[in-house]
């Protein structure tokens, strides 16, 4: 499905009702991620972002791990709402995990000491760009998407389960699937208060 950029941006929403179906193939999902990782910009072209795609039982495993970790950290009387959230994410078709490779960031900090304090900030910025591009692309193909942040609680379990490099720092989790519910109403602060134009 082809959409122009601003249509895709306007239609990007947090969809929490998702199902274990996808309107596109696994190969198409992988291609979206590959194109995004290849072409999304990064500071000094240092290409620090790493992405893991979990489908099928691997997707289920992530949310089982997250549930287990949270159960040990959330008071029992509050866990029912947490369990409901976890079930909602597990009900999805897949999850995209976003990481930043700290070894690359560290090497650029050493290589360019004048900018060293900025590289961790720039790395978060490039990760955010990857998140937005993948989010828009998946939604443009008819998938419902939302973004979660259960790091750092689940970081070590995730790296151990999928044997990921120790230098990969988990930034965000993006569950997706065919929408089973609509997004809520979105409110906007006045754009005029958020932009200044000088001619």
TrEMBL record:
**Gene3D superfamilies, from UniProt?**
NADH Oxidase
Q: In what residue span(s) does the Nitroreductase domain sit?
A: 9-178
| InterPro entries cross-referenced by the UniProt entry | Frm2/Hbn1, Nitroreductase, Nitroreductase-like
Superkingdom of origin organism: Bacteria
Tell me which positions the record assigns to the signal sequence: none
Short name of one Pfam family for this protein? Nitroreductase
Report what the protein is called. Answer: Nitroreductase
């Amino acid at each position: 499905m082809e959409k122009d950029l601003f249509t895709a941006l306007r239609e990007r929403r947090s969809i929490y009702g998702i199902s274990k179906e996808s309107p596109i193939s696994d190969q198409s999902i992988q291609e979206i991620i590959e194109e995004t990782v290849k072409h999304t910009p990064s500071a000094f072209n240092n290409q620090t972002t790493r992405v893991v795609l979990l489908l099928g039982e691997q997707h289920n495993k992530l949310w089982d791990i997250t549930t287990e970790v949270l159960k040990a950290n959330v008071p029992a009387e509050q866990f029912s709402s947490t369990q409901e959230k976890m079930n909602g994410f597990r009900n999805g078709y897949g999850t995209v995990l976003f990481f930043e490779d700290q070894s690359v960031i560290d090497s650029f900090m050493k290589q360019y000491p004048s900018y060293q304090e900025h590289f961790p900030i720039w790395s978060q910025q490039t990760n955010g760009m990857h998140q937005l591009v993948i989010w828009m692309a998946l939604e443009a193909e008819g998938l419902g998407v939302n973004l979660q942040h259960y790091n750092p609680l689940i970081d070590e379990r995730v790296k151990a389960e999928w044997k990921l490099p120790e230098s990969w720092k988990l930034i965000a989790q993006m569950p997706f699937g065919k929408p089973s519910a609509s997004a809520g109403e979105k409110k906007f602060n006045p754009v005029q208060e958020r932009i200044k134009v000088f001619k």
